[in-house]
Amino acid sequence: MSHMSSEKYEESKLYKIRHSAAHIMAQAVLEMFPDGKITIGPPVENGFYYDFDLPRNLTPEDLQQIEKRMRQIIAGKHDFVKKVVTAGEAREIFKDQPYKLELIDGLEKGGFDEYGNPLQEKPEISIYQDDTFVDLCRGPHVDNTKDIKPDALKLMSVAGAYWRGDEHNKMLQRVYGTVWENAQQLKEYLWQLEEAKKRDHRKLGKELEIFFFDDEVGPGLPLFAPNGGVMIEEIEKLAKETEEEAGYLRVRTPHLSKEDLFIHSGHLPYYAESMYPPMELEGVKYYVKPMNCPMHHKIFGSKPRSYRDLPIRLAEYGTDYRYEKSGELFGLMRVRSLQMNDAHMYVSEDQFEQEFLGVVNLYLKYFALFGIEKYVMRLSLHSKEGLGKKYVDNERLWLKTEDMVRRAMQNGKVPFVEAEDEAAFYGPKVDVQVWSVIGKEFSLATNQVDFAQPARFDLKFINKQGLEEVPLCIHRAPLSTHERLIGFLIEHYAGNFPVWLSPEQVRVIPITDSQNEYAESIVKELRGQHIRVSADISAQRMNAKIRQAQIMKVPYMLVVGENEMTAGQVSLRVRDGSQKNNIGLAEFVASVKEKIATRSPEL
Ligand SMILES: [Zn+2]
Ligand SMILES: [Zn+2]
Question: pTM for this structure?
Answer without folding.
Answer: 0.84
